[in-house]
Write a structure and sequence with these properties.
Peptidase_S1_PA_chymotrypsin, signal, alpha+beta, about 25% strand, Peptidase_S1_PA, 5-stranded antiparallel sheet
Amino acid sequence: MGSTRMSAPSGRGRRTVLAATGLVAALALTATACGGSEEDEAKGKPDATASRTADSGGGRVTVPSDIADRLKEHGIDVDKWKDGGWENWDRDKWLSEAEDFVNPVIEGLWKPDRMKSAKEADKTVSTKDASAAEGVSDPEPAQVRAVGEKTPYHENAAPVGKVFFDSPEGPAVCSGTVIKDVNHPGKSNLVWTAGHCVHAGSDGGWFRNLVFVPAYNDLGKSEAELSNANAAEIAPYGNWWADWASTSNGWIQGGSPSGGDGAAYDYAVLHVKPEQGAKSLEETVGNALDVDFSAPSAAEAGRMGAWGYPAAPPYNGLQMFKCLDAPGRFSLSPSLPTMYRIGCSMTGGSSGGGWFRVRDGKTVLVSNTSIGPLDNTWLAGPQLGADAEALYQNMSKTYGGQ
């Protein structure tokens, strides 16, 4: 019942490195400062919040005693979890605290058809919301039409993939990026995505059955071509279950369906393990990106690119797309930190996908897709500063070697 994972052929890692060099060429166009002065507002720095998951063994779910006790407080029988108990979305039992997150591997759950049925995890803002911080935000950018990435994706793009999870509305999907683990060089199991792809924010709790699929549909096949696809075609590097997850307190406390006060802190890090196999994620896919935590102003950042798998019309979530633009400043309120904003036509499903810039000749992750308007003309993503770096370091040092 488990899905098949293809091992990477020799040389794949080398070709991926060359592809990253191509990314540098794509992004290293004339850097254009995008309007406005450098922001002077002090940023809020919510505490990094981490969560521990359960592991599975012998067909049963085993969890550390402290987490089991927390689950029992919610009336949850951990032994029934893998038999479908996770589907209980009673609001009183929606696990929301950091230590409540439980994500045991359920091998074979995420089959190709279930992946294709997943709906986009969308965060849209109204025109009124978008204009709430006039004088702080730069003028709205012109729409940039997303361009399909060249195939195979693992040779032409950064190590981007799809993040699948179960929400109260059913299977859902975001995008994510393999990032380096500074404390475990060459053996990273870390994935960067959006906070709203792991946690519902102030009105909910942790989502369930979180899985990362790197280079999803690597050859960019159409829906018709994938009608009888096997697991290896859809997930060439296998399914990677999140056994640890971290997002910011800012998102947990302030996140909403339209981003809300948590939008500026809408980021998350997953620590993953393969459904099958033993090699690290970075070794398996052959690449990972550094994260730029310097939080450059929009004017200083230069040209950026956003990558992801848009799933809402006119896209269907099967192919990887990208947008390149010079960022401007965006904020939902003068009291909130400024985000980056670029013109882009990508829709829901691209949420959590990495934003990349060139720094010192290298492609680095500088943000992720968080929110956008109903007419899909632009995207906004958080600046990653000291608060984001603290979350990342905590994840790496505490869980990276697991």
